[in-house]
Automatic annotation (TrEMBL):
GO CC terms, sorted: methionine adenosyltransferase complex; nucleus
Similarity comment text for this entry: Belongs to the dTDP-4-dehydrorhamnose reductase family. MAT2B subfamily.
UniProt-listed Pfam families: RmlD_sub_bind (PF04321)
PANTHER family noted in UniProt: DTDP-4-DEHYDRORHAMNOSE REDUCTASE (PTHR10491), METHIONINE ADENOSYLTRANSFERASE 2 SUBUNIT BETA (PTHR10491:SF4)
Name of the protein this chain belongs to: Methionine adenosyltransferase 2 subunit beta
Gene3D superfamilies recorded: NAD(P)-binding Rossmann-like Domain
Pathway: Amino-acid biosynthesis; S-adenosyl-L-methionine biosynthesis; S-adenosyl-L-methionine from L-methionine: step 1/1
Quaternary assembly: Heterotrimer; composed of a catalytic MAT2A homodimer that binds one regulatory MAT2B chain. Heterohexamer; composed of a central, catalytic MAT2A homotetramer flanked on either side by a regulatory MAT2B chain. NADP binding increases the affinity for MAT2A.
Record SUPFAM superfamilies: NAD(P)-binding Rossmann-fold domains
Residue stretches making up the RmlD-like substrate binding domain: 56-348
Annotated InterPro entries: dTDP_dehydrorham_reduct, NAD(P)-bd_dom_sf, RmlD-like-bd
Keyword flag NADP: yes
Record keywords: NADP, One-carbon metabolism
Length: 360
């Protein structure tokens, strides 16, 4: 039987519980002090009056592009969701340094999640190449440790991985195809997959391609970062037209995570590796043109570059993921790219900001 959460989820009761080990140590290993038992903190914030759902999910990387959407999706669908971040954690999320195994142990044992969605990672290929040891600590060692802790309490772990585990020479890729990552980022994510499945045979690996969605800064996503080059049409801009990509909305991945978790609650055979992806194939040049089109902006200043890029980490030409395994389980959602990108980018439209400045 699953152990009960340390802190009762009932109204008011949570506030009367004893201090959690994490609180006694002054946090979950982050650089700032003062993190508390998440259930207790939530109950206090809510004045003890809300009914907290009984299904608990812990989300790592909840301050990141994908993690924010995953947190929202579970939170809005009758799950008791606790998100963890690191540098951006406070005030909304728990601050947990995933490299600190005591902090990880504490939050998992305090909160007793049924499900853990592990989104935290170093996901920028060029940063991984320049800081390989730090990236490996987070992407591999911390993932293995999290998987072991999840197994210890019988929680279902979803480890988010990438299409960059494939070399992109023979798409589309099924879950059973042999990975062959071209760059160090893909290698660390693949090693992370292995570390997770070795430490937790009931875990799931969810591989996804390039993401976009609601961003705090345009640079947060390899898709949204193109927006300024699109909207400043007085300057010509070179755009990669070599690598075939499948831009995927973080909201859709979040739905997949929730549906997978809910299916697993009913069916313990749901485990192992899964693929999810948008189904619109585009180069960066084509994405930039679609963005221009979505906002009625000119695209004649955008220049397609058809040669293989020579700077930065090597990328696969076409690592298209075959998603039929999840589709057959009835899992998935796909937002059309134009609708999704418009929703994500409108706050960054220069023209709109200009109008707001002048008239408000
Ligand atoms: N973005 C993509 O296009 C893409 C494509 C394929 C797969 N993926 C995979 O999807 C997942 C999510 O990616 P993302 O784009 O959402 O990443 P992201 O926006 O870069 O967020 C990274 C997250 O990791 C957290 N983090 C970093 N160091 C940490 C530490 N020591 N302890 C605890 N947390 C730490 C960050 O927290 P703070 O910011 O609070 O420090 C942040 O929440 C990753 O596994 C990535 O490999 C992403």
């Amino acid at each position: 039987a699953r152990p009960a959460a340390r802190t009762s989820a009932g109204s008011g009761g949570a506030a009367e519980e004893a201090e959690a080990p994490g609180a006694a140590r002054g946090g979950h290993g982050g650089p700032r002090e003062g993190a508390q038992d998440p259930l207790r903190a939530r109950a206090l914030r809510a004045g003890g009056d809300i009914e907290i759902p009984s299904r608990r999910v812990l989300i790592t990387g909840a301050t990141g592009l994908l993690g924010r959407a995953v947190f929202k999706e579970f939170n809005e669908n009758n799950w008791n969701a606790v998100g963890c971040g690191y540098r951006r954690a406070q005030p909304k999320f728990e601050q947990v340094n995933l490299l600190n195994s005591v902090a990880v142990h504490d939050i998992i044992h305090d909160f007793q999640p049924h499900v853990i969605v592990h989104c935290a990672a170093e996901r920028r290929p060029d940063v991984v190449e320049s800081q390989p040891d730090a990236a490996s600590q987070l992407n591999v060692a911390a993932s293995g440790n999290l998987a072991k802790e999840a197994a210890g309490i019988g929680a279902f772990l979803i480890y988010i991985s990438t299409d960059y585990v494939f070399d992109g020479t023979s798409p589309p890729y099924k879950e059973t195809d042999v990975p062959n990552p071209l760059n160090l980022y893909g290698k660390t994510k693949l090693e992370g997959e292995k570390a997770v499945l070795e430490n937790n045979e009931g875990a799931a690996v969810l591989r996804i391609p390039v993401l976009y969605g609601e961003v705090e800064r345009l640079e947060e996503s390899a898709v949204t970062v193109m927006f300024d080059k699109v909207q400043f049409s007085n300057k010509s801009a070179n755009m990669d037209h070599w690598q075939q990509r499948f831009p995927t909305n973080v909201k859709d991945v979040a739905v997949v995570c929730r549906q997978l978790a809910e299916k697993r609650m009913l069916d313990p055979s749901i485990k192992g590796t899964f693929h999810w992806s948008g189904n619109e194939q585009m180069t960066k040049y084509e994405m930039a043109c679609a963005i221009a089109d979505a906002f009625n902006l000119p695209s004649s200043h955008l220049r397609p570059i058809t040669d293989c890029p020579v700077v930065g980490a090597l990328r696969p030409r076409n690592a298209q993921l075959d998603c039929s395994k999840l589709e057959m389980l009835g899992i998935g959602q796909r937002t059309p790219f134009r609708a999704g990108i418009k929703e994500s980018l409108w706050p960054f439209l220069v023209d709109k900001r200009w109008r707001q400045t002048v008239f408000h």
